[in-house]
Amino acid sequence: MSDLGRRGEERERGGDEAGSLSLETVVVLPVILAFFAFVVAAGTLQDDHGTMDAAVQAAARSGSLTRDPSQVQQNVTAAADVVFKQGGLSECMGTVGVAFNGVGAAPPKPPAGYYNVVKAEGTCTVRINFGLLTLSRKVTGEFTSVVDTYRGR
């Protein structure tokens, strides 16, 4: 058999490239898996930020609708906890604080330069568990709601 015939036979069997697909898979597969893990972690973190934002918004709005100043903190916490439970962040329950002025008070007289407001702020550390690797990240949120002074009058 001539030299030309042997080369053609080697090409059909793979010749020098035998096993290269296995090697490429071993090298590339971890990179692809790490990329997918990063995408999942980034999506989960974004979802957690959205849940925190929704919780502080619900908390501030609930506080701004409260007429009794002594009930504001309780209503704010309850409203935020409902959103945390629905959003899958039960570890964040009870972490929303409130600052308020003028709840239950008469509307400010113009030109007062301010409004009576309720401001809710939340901070929580969330953990993303990948089995061997656990990532933790702090999510924060803040929302201010103007007190509805004419509600119920």
What would you say this structure looks like, in words?
The protein has 153 residues and is of the alpha+beta class. The protein has one domain (19-146). The protein has helices at 3-13, 20-65, 72-87; strands at residues 96-101, 117-129, 134-146. Helix 2 packs antiparallel against helix 3. The longest helix has 46 residues, at 20-65. It starts with a helix and ends in a 7-residue tail after the last strand.
Could you give a quick summary of the protein structure above?
The chain has about 150 residues and is α+β, with helices and mostly antiparallel strands.
List keywords for this structure.
3-stranded antiparallel beta sheet; rod-shaped; about 150 residues; alpha+beta
